Amino acid sequence: MDSPSHSSVIIIGAGISGISAGKVLAENGIEDMLILEASDRIGGRIRKENFGGVSVELGAGWVAGVGGKEPNPVWELASQSGLRTCFSDYSNARYNIYDRSGKIFPSGVAADSYKKAVDSAIEKLRSLEANLDSEVTEQPRSPKTPIELAIDFILHDFRDGREVNGLSVKTEVEPISTYVDFGEREFLVADDRGYEHLLYKMAEDFLFTSEGKILDNRLKLNKVVRELQHSRNGVVVKTEDGCVYEANYVILSASIGVLQSDLISFRPPLPRWKTEAIEKCDVMIYTKIFLKFPCQFWPCGPGKEFFIYAHERRGYYTFWQHMENAYPGSNILVVTLTNGESKRVEAQSDEETLEEAMGVLRDMFGPNIPNATDIIVPRWWNNRFQRGSYSNYPIISDNQDVHYIKAPVGRIFFTGEHTSERFSGYVHGGYLAGIDTSKSLLEEMRKQKERKSESQTFLLEPLLALTGSLEAVPSLHKCDIPTQLYLSGKVGLQEAIL
Ligand SMILES: Cc1cc2nc3c(=O)[nH]c(=O)nc-3n(C[C@H](O)[C@H](O)[C@H](O)COP(=O)(O)OP(=O)(O)OC[C@H]3O[C@@H](n4cnc5c(N)ncnc54)[C@H](O)[C@@H]3O)c2cc1C
Q: From its record, what is one biological process in GO terms (predicted)?
């Protein structure tokens, strides 16, 4: 068992946001920083698995947001570290929509259905934006045909209604110049070292020795944090294996799904403005099921990487991709399920899922195709260190909930993709959030030092210890905690100290 140790900062979670936060702290001279990670690896939702002789990405697979006016920092990291990627364009998928008898819908029918769905998505966004502050009443919808359901799935589940045909729905309603433009192109990671190679590259200077061994004073794996307790001058962190750590500050990078679960308890409990914002955020479940075959039986060639199965049940094994562009000759297919369908397959055996998937493939390609020889069904929902795949904020929102989810409570700072205003749900969202949170914390540490030197500590220290119990609504732009408390008017200085 570890003996109690004290650090300046403890970071909880070694996904992209935890690692990018740690890197900024290390670069700014915070030597005694410690990362506690619940699982036995770094990477979090960036996770590769060796499957059928190649490396497949069970979590993030695309470097998304490339080719715009500004460089996406994750794309830059990928380029610098020589990560092998291939351009991946799913906009042609609409020309490869199969019905249940294996016929491909004529391109005119598919293009029409697609255009109608895009127009209606844009119209809905415009009306949502116009009615941002008032209640929007949904028009009753007529029952949808299998092709409409399939297209609906691509627009709203597969890409969360964010992108349509290489064109962001959001940019249709909001001029692109109003926000950072990383672009709309996407590149599939096709590298045996996996997407996670980027994390190892980022971490090599501060979490590993030159021989590649983990620096145990910086990173501890298999440490499931169960309790965070504010103390007089910091935070006490308790892990499932009975270890206790102390730090002046904590950065918590656990996912929104974990924050919604009871994995971590807070003493005092988190204030209501925080818990309400956390509860409001939707969690998306996104499951990529990989299937290995003895030979290829699906069409390959330009425009054929993606294909769609139109079924009367929405999201039923709808979206398919072959891996021939990434790994020629690998004979691997991947099918994407989301939300309810993801939960359903997570609850059944892999054999049942394989049987269902084979039934769908036989509908599309005939009864004589070979059986898959292997399958992987990731279980992001049932993973208690994830509880879902990523945060799913409404596409039009005023960002207030993100601000509340991100705002520090006392000495606990929050990070992760779900705290990114613009890029939640993406790897670059997590990466940028980690940097942003660390910078806010460094600023707070600088101010704290100044306060100490101004000899105000006798009043401010007890205030900091009590912050977590208060219902003070955070200032949205600063993390000047004592000032927030003071200015909120919810509690008098005297009262707080008592
Ligand atoms: C299936 C799937 C597909 C995706 N596809 C893409 C894509 O193509 N492109 C893209 O840009 N993004 C994609 N994403 C999203 C992207 O993976 C995430 O946005 C990003 O990796 C999140 O990083 P993070 O650091 O915020 O969180 P995480 O990676 O979840 O890191 C948090 C870490 O905290 C740890 N943790 C949790 N609880 C505790 C605890 N109590 N104690 C200690 N440690 C704890 C977890 O084990 C985890 O390692 C996908 C995600 C999934 C799941």
A: polyamine catabolic process
- 469 against 365, higher pLDDT: 365
- Which residue has a Cα nearest atom 50 of ligand 1? 60
pTM of this structure: 0.89
Categorize the per-residue pLDDT at 481 as very low, low, confident or very high, splitting at 50, 70 and 90. Answer: very low
| Cα–Cα distance list, 253 to 42, 44, 391, 437 (Å) | 13, 10, 13, 10
Question: In angstroms, what is the span from residue 417 Cα to ligand 1's centroid?
Answer: 8
d(CA 35, CA 252): 10
Q: Give the separation between CA 338 and CA 327, rounded to whole angstroms.
A: 25
- Ligand 1 atom nearest the C-alpha of 416 is 26
Pocket of ligand 1 (CB under 6 A): 12-18, 36-39, 44-46, 59-62, 64, 223-225, 253-255, 258, 263-264, 286, 288, 380, 385-386, 389-390, 416-417, 425-427, 429-430
Give per-residue pLDDT as tens, 393-429. 876 666 889 999 999 999 999 999 999 988 999 999 9
- Rounded to the nearest angstrom, the distance between the alpha carbon of 490 and the centre of ligand 1 is 36
Probe residue for ligand 1, chosen from 75, 262, 390 as the CB with the greatest number of ligand atoms within 8 Å = 390
- Separation CA 477–CA 27 (nearest Å): 24
Going by alpha carbons, the residue nearest to atom 6 of ligand 1 is 60
Side chain identity at residue 180, one-letter code: V
**Nearest ligand 1 atom, CA 428:** 11
How many angstroms is it from 491 CA to the middle of ligand 1? 37
Query: Does residue 403 sit in helix, strand or coil?
Result: helix
Annotated binding site for FAD: 17, 37-38, 225
